[in-house]
Amino acid sequence: MPTTRRALLGTLGAAALAGVAAAPTPSSRHAPGTPVPLRLPAPTGPWPVGTVPLHLVDTGRPDPLRPAKPYREIMAGLWYPAEPAPRNPTAPWLPPAAAADWDAHSAPSLGVPTGAADWQGIRTHARTGAPVARRAGRLPVVLFSSGDGGSRALGTTLVEDLASHGHLVVALDSTYETEQVEFPGGRIERALPLPDDLTPEVIAALLTTHSRARLADARFVLRTLDRLTRGERPDTGTGPLPDGLAEAADAGRVGVLGQSLGGSVAAQLAHDEPRVSAAADLDGALLDPVAHSGLTKPFLLMTSGTKTLHNEPSWASCWAASTGPRHALRLRNSAHGSYTDLQTLLPQLLRHLPIPDPTGLIGTIDPRRSLATQRTAVVAFFTRYLRGRPTHFFDRPGDRWPELEVLH
């Protein structure tokens, strides 16, 4: 399997990847030089959103994926409710060099030819460096990570929405696993090459290695949050932190959200870390030990396709062993990539490009209903278990959201 298929580890999931044939490259219906413009849907919460990138360096350990490197560096994005800041520019979906690399290496793996889409032109709805909204009060923290190989940008529609509802979200990239990570100054660190023979055993070993690296990254970020709340600022080349962040961040209320491998890591982090109060897993099979020991904390599992608690062994064993509040929902007619920004971006491209097998990526569910359902479920979960506010969403979610099936 060529390394240009790297991004599909995060998009399709490890189990599906082993049986996916290389997609044919479609011919673009767009004239050369006219890439398709793309937009992200606006967040639904009452607060404007701010964001800043954060470059973090952990000098206390060698890089777990490149052991010859004596330190670990990662990029994160902070997303938070903000004061109105119309003079601050909106942040790009991907920074410029990463967007160009995505266009050259990741997009073709999705069946989108290089230059066919304006990836660099995608803007978020978050104002870069806007002050934190003081009236939002103390902000519970949610760590987010995407699927294996996937950029943190692939969760932007969910991350922005959580921030607009009063959460501080820290979205993480996993350097040398994520397809491309842009550091200050435009430096790109690409994912390490995949083995040529991706057998199920090789994939399982890769996922275990990547999971351990992400867990260590998340623990480092939690320690960094403690420093930020004391007013310390990392001096690693990123700009100043937004005004009001140290006072607003509530590092005592922490949740974790992830898609695919990110969801597996979310569950494991909640299992291991006493300070993590709740975890949400978007279609990620679980790894040991949490797969068999279960969770005593609130846990949200959202699945795709025909997957249930009975046909995914790691979910079944975790569910049987868990004693905390837990909710399992299946998003009907969805696919693994429905829990990424591809759910909203690919339908825009399909109007102009013959993308091969888009339903294998994002299912047949209406994209707007899919996103609205996911956003509502994720916000309701963290509102209930981090903010301690009552919500009736989980009482009978299928009544208002027929796209959802409650799993038992």
Summarize the model shown.
By secondary structure, the protein is α/β, with parallel strands linked by helices.
Question: Which residue ranges are poorly predicted, with pLDDT under 50 across at least 5 consecutive positions?
Answer: 1-30
List the domain count as a whole number: 1
> What is the name of the CATH class?
Alpha Beta
Shape: globular
Assign the CATH topology.
Rossmann fold
- Beta-strand proportion: 15-25%
Whole-number average pLDDT?
A: 91
The CATH homologous superfamily is called: Alpha/Beta hydrolase fold, catalytic domain
Structural class: alpha/beta
CATH architect. name: 3-Layer(aba) Sandwich
Number of strands: 13
Q: In which range does the helix fraction lie?
A: 25-40%
> How many helices?
13
Q: Gyration radius, to the nearest Å?
A: 20 Å
Q: Report the sheet with the most strands, covering strand number, pairing sense and barrel closure.
A: 11 strands, mixed
Verbal overview:
By secondary structure, the chain is α/β, with parallel strands linked by helices. It has one domain: Alpha/Beta hydrolase fold, catalytic domain (Rossmann fold, 3-Layer(aba) Sandwich), CATH 3.40.50.1820. The protein is about 30% helix and about 20% strand. The chain has 13 helices and 13 strands. The chain has an 11-stranded mixed sheet with strand order 3-4-1-2-6-5-9-10-11-12-13, with helices on both faces. The protein has a two-stranded antiparallel sheet with strand order 7-8. Strand 7 and strand 8 form a beta hairpin. Helix 5 crosses helix 7. The longest helix has 30 residues, at about 200-230. Residues about 1-30 have low confidence and may be disordered.
